[in-house]
Every structure is written in C-alpha cells, then in structure tokens.
Amino acid sequence: IMEINDSSWEDFILVGFSEYPKAEFILSLFVSGFYTMTLAGNTAIISVSILDCRLHTPMYFFLRNLSFLDICFTTCIVPQMLVNIWSGHKTISYVGCIVQYSVALALGSIECVLLAVMAVDRFVAVIWPLRYAKIMHQRICHLLAATSWLSGFANSLLQSSLVIILPLCGHHHLDHFLCEVLVIVKLSCVDTSPAESKMLIVRLIILAIPVCIILTSYACIAGTVVRMHSAEGRQKAFGTCASHLMVVLLFYGTIMFTYLQPKNNYSQNQGKILALVYTIVAPTMNPLIYSLRNKDVKRAMRKVIWKDLV
After folding, report:
1. Which of 299, 286, 212, 189 is nearest to 243 (CA)?
2. Does the UniProt entry include the keyword Transmembrane (predicted)?
3. Mean pLDDT over residues 236-241, rounded?
C-alpha cells in the first residue's frame, strides 16, 4: 500500500498533442491568440459594464460574473499548457495537477449554474417587465451569484475528494493537455466503478438542474413572445435572449457531450478536441457574442473609447 501511495506523489506527464509536434506548435499559437482575445474581450466587458451607469442592471451584473469566470477558467489551463509545449517539458507536479483539475472543475460547474441564473433573469425581464426591477433587486442578484459560486466549489469538492483517494499504481502519463478528472480516474489500477457512479450522480445534478431551469425559462419566454402583438416587442425580447442562448448552446453542448456519454464511447482524442472548445474557444466567443449582438454594450464601448481618445 505504501508503494502505491508513494507513486501517487510523483509528477504527471501531460502528453497533450505531442504525437503531432508540428501541429502542436501551430496549436500553441492558436491557443495563445485565443487566450489573448479572452483576456482582452472579457476585461473590456467588465470595464465597460462598470464604467457606464446605464449598464448597472442585473443582466450586466451577471455578465460581469461570467466574464470574470471565463478569465479565471482559461488562466487555470492555458499558461501551463503553453509552458509545456514551448519548453518541451510536459510535467506537472502532483499537487499542481490536483489544484488544476479541482479549480477547473469548480469554475466549469459555476458557469453551468450561472448560465441558468442568467436564463431566470431573462425570464423575469420578458414575462414581468414592469416588475423586473423590483424582483431582480441588488440583494437577490448577489444571492444568486453567490449560490452559483458556492454550488460550483461544492461540486468540485465532492468529485475531487472521490478522485484523490484512488491509488494510481505508478501510472503518470496523462493523455491530455490538462489535468482532467475523467483522465485521472482512468489511471487508477483499482475498480473505479463505485467512485464513477457517485461522480456521475453529482455531474447529473450540476448539469441537469440548470438545464431544466434554462429549458423551462426559454419555453415560457417563447410562449410569451409568440403571444406578443407588437413586432418591435418580439424583436426586443428575442434580442435580450439570443446572446445568452448562443452561449448556452456552445458551452452546454460540449460539456454534456463530454461528461454524460457512455464510458465505452469515450474517445481520448475526441475528448481533447471538445476540451479545447469549452476551455479555450467558448470563453473567447462569449464577449464577442454579447458585444456584437448587444446595442447597449456597443454604445458603451464607443463612449468609453471616445472619452479615452479625447
């Protein structure tokens, strides 16, 4: 037993895409470009929504949370990935690996819940527009945001505690570019079925409940929009929801395909490509989707830029 425990403290080797060295270097340029855009775009969204008093609304409060979350999410993964590719050393310490998959799992879980909270915000805005300010007051917004963050870290704590007790028996090559829970579980030399069953239940809760909330919210919104007599009213309602819905589809589509498919169908190369989408591409697309489709954000950005130029 002591030998197993000692082997668990060795460094891990992140294989990544090292079987394709030329493609890996091109990928690193692609990733660094997307990471730069993620930092710039999300920082711009946060700054603009703080500086422009007209954006001090619940919708933009949650959008600031989402932007900050995306910055943290990509920063948890991308710098380590680029260092491994450019230095040629693919190692990550045991503690570093635990921290990475725990934090990444927490931030991904927070985004699941936060997107559901944003759907509820859009539901209230469309269904009860006259009572929106009264219902979505500052205290309830802070409570909903805190619930998102606490539930995400609780989910990470539960799943990480199930993974960390599994003996690795000297296997330390991770066929991935990041420390990821599903990959760590596959390194264990004991029967992982009990742990995986518990983790699946936790994943279903953190994914299924927000999905049900989102679907219910948008079903009610769709029913309300269809009954609207004003074409302008329908267009405005659709405009307030379209950006959020695009972000939901991009994030949830890849997450659910990765974590809820049968174990026998899981392909490691497929898993790495999907991970690139939800850890690197999605956080870059979020500010683009919200800024390009949102007149208020574009107007606020022009106002801030013009002030700086003057």
Report:
1. 286
2. yes
3. 71
CA angle 50, 147, 158 (to 5 degrees): 130
Q: Give the predicted TM-score (pTM) of the model.
A: 0.85
Q: How many domains does the chain have?
A: 1
Q: How confident is the model over 175-191, as pLDDT tens digits?
A: 888 888 878 888 888 88
Rg of the chain taking only CA atoms, in angstroms: 21
Residue with tokens 């759907």: 119
Contact 17, 175 (CB under 8 A): no
In-domain check, residue 5: no
What is the CB neighbour count within 10 angstroms for residue 211? 18
Q: Decide if 310 is inside a domain.
A: no
Residue 116 confidence (pLDDT): 93
Q: What is the mean pLDDT of residues 217-237?
A: 79
Query: What CA–CA distance (Å, rounded) separates 253 from 248?
Result: 8
Helices (H), ranges, 52-173: 58-87, 94-127, 132-135, 138-164
Q: What is the CATH number of the domain that holds 191?
A: 1.20.1070.10
Which tokens belong to 289? 């989707």
Structure tokens at 109: 């879980």
Domain that holds residue 159: 11-302
- Under 8 Å between Cβ of 90 and 15: yes
pLDDT, one tens digit per residue, over 77-98 is 999 888 888 887 788 888 888 8
Asked if residue 77 belongs to a domain, the reply is yes
